[in-house]
Amino acid sequence: MTRAKRVPGEWGALKADVVLSKGQVEERAKHLLAQMNLKEKVRQMSGDTPLVSGVAWLFVGYNRRPIPAGENRRLSIPGIRFSDGPRGVVVYRSTCFPVSMARGASWDIELEERIGDAMGVEARSQGANLLGNVCINVLRHPAWGRAQETYGEDPFHLGEMGAASVRGVQRHIMACVKHYAANSIENARFRVDVRMNERTLREVYSPHFKRCVDEGAAVVMSAYNKVNGHYCGHNRHLLRDILKSEWGFQGFVVSDFMWGIRSAGAAAAGLDLEMPFTVHFGKKLVKLVREGKFPEDVVDEAVLRILRQKIRFAQAGESERYNPQAVVSAAHKALAREAAQKSMVLLKNERTGGDDHRVLPIDVARVKRLAVIGKLAAVPNIGDTGSSMVRPPYVVTPLVGLRRTAPEDCRITYNDGKNTGRAVDAARGADTVVVIVGNTRKDEGEYLFHRSGDRDALTLKPRDEALILRIAAANPKTVVVLMGGSAVVTESWREKVPAVLMAWYPGMEGGNALADILFGKVSPSAKLPCSFPRSESQLPFFDKRAKSIEYGYFHGYRLMDKEGHEPAFPFGFGLSYTTFAYRDLRLDGTEIPTDGTLRVSVDVTNTGGVAGEEVVQLYVGYEGSQVERCLKELKGFAKVHLAPGETKPVVFALPARRLAYYDEQRANWVIEPITYTVYVGPSSRAQELLSAQFSVGG
Known about the structure:
Layout: H1 22-34, H2 38-43, H3 51-60, E1 67-69, E2 80-84, H4 100-106, H5 109-125, E3 130-135, H6 155-169, E4 174-180, E5 193-195, H7 198-203, H8 207-214, E6 219-222, E7 226-227, E8 230-231, H9 236-246, E9 252-254, H10 265-269, H11 282-290, H12 296-314, H13 330-341, E10 345-349, E11 369-373, H14 398-405, E12 411-415, H15 420-428, E13 432-438, H16 462-474, E14 478-483, E15 499-502, H17 510-518, E16 548-550, H18 556-563, E17 580-587, E18 591-592, E19 597-606, E20 612-623, E21 633-642, E22 647-655, E23 661-663, E24 668-670, E25 675-681, E26 690-696
């Protein structure tokens, strides 16, 4: 295993003996800026990789080493050393965690912060100081090829998960939040113009970015696509008006790679760092400034932003934690396994025939012959092979994990499913069958040279659906394990099987984690971060080749609520091996002021026989609003661990500002003096929610 050695004195002149205050950081940044000539300033604003050799490297061995930018040896100013993400550190050999969509299904903020911490340690131990791991684009439609790289469909959920990752990573290095904004079509990403009104932009496609900015994110990456006619890297409204002016972002904006900007004019719009090569900045930008065609104060602002973050993170971290042994350590392997365990969503788990036991967990006292069927059981399947590809030292497949975990007297047979007749024979001879099917890097992911990209259909492949039906007919105790990056339509076969588990792309320890779930060593606790529709007719319009597309205010569970659709599995849904009861929803008042906060409490009881974790969700609805609003939308969530029979109160703080809508006429946020309904429960399904009302004073 090849790993980078940490560079001694890596921060050069920027490292201080004590942690600098914000004012001291600013003073030092300005002092360094004043010592630079124009060429040195502009050199801070772009990648150091040579263009010609770098293009080949970009597509052959992308990011095997940190990608450099803006080193100044004369002034001992280190360069940016970038590693991509978000399922782990892309450089060298690193721990591969479950993809972000899987971790979004955990709804576990504390867990995501620990994963961010681990990524920060591994990145810095391997020579990186900037990690592009915080992908928080809204999953508008599950056909999006890079759905696996984000956390889900809801802006509030995205913001909280992203903020947790920022906190973890930035104990050690800079975190990059991406791709700003409205990036959710892959095949047409370089040209598509995403059209939307200002309210939709403010309420649906950007609040999660603000949440990460408020958390102190050092870097924001612009998206490839256009928003309302302007490429995101040239979009002054996004970068200057909103991000830098309104939100007060103090970090710097980096371009997405290669085609992220189209001219030096991106700097005027608010883009600070061109990556990974110097194409439009560099000599071109120097010439424009010297000819008086471009203001040097724009260059100064960009460089000051970059220096500010370099100095800030020169003070971060604990040097003793950064070494080769910290990469893929025992602790990080255990964390990857825990993350996979807490990411797998149990979608269905029924009894068969007159059996008193549900199919899962597998009863090892009775199941002595277990058939595992499907080629995905025996191959590494950790996600797409584009810019987010992590190169772990090993991957535990489902078959290996099951064989390691099964008792000695449980005989496991394997069939890849290619010969359906033999697969059916294996199923007939087993006490229980586990069928593992789904998508791979060939079906979805980053679109490169006609490979991968957006999905054409949300169903499984016809041969997989046919295999499930044949196996289920041969053995009623059939468990279907799905792999993939987002929602799967299951209508043609779901009612024929008693158990369904969504495993996503579960990372290098996924096989062990899957076995832990199936054999009952761990009770499932994950919930869907995106709605699983019955058909694509329940979803917004999607065209992977679109040149222009309109993004409306509603998508996901919000659209299904509006249209009265019943999904196959709702947003926030997930089963456990135990059961939970909700009662006694309490508000600490019936009215709060516009600057106030409402406390919401509910008692949750584990009514089953095993310990488990429950994701408690809080939604808010609006009664009598002057504008069209969601029937309900997520405004809080918490994960609680409960022993059998145990009851715990779960308390939420709901600030009134979280209830505001964006008034386009006033160009401001408005909290209406109306009646609001609080909904609390285990998912977004209306029948499962307790409710109570309150109002906001004028």
